[in-house]
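Structure record:
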Amino acid sequence: MTLPKFLIDYSHKIGESESRAHYMTPIFQAQCYAWLERLVRAKRVLEVGVYLGFSSMVWSFAVGTDGIVTGLEYDPKYVQLAGQAFEEYGVKNCEIVLGDAAKT
């Protein structure tokens, strides 16, 4: 499954600028997410751990505008950075819940 250019660009941006880029989902795995969504036709995704929002954005692309992605993130810094990325790239169907995943 081919990912749109903006996702590839965002992945590269993270890889070049973040010391913890290894936390991010690799491109091949992201392509598998999109393929898996097409296989099961998911419209709701729950993601535990959002980091900078790349995989949430991949799921957003995969489920389409009529789907929803909910991310659970413990660190307010990553909630803010992922939210900024969603806004910058026009991602509208992702929401992030701040807090301990076991309690949210």
In short: Residues 57 and 91 are 7 Å apart (CA to CA). The first helix runs from residue 5 to 17. The mean pLDDT is 96.
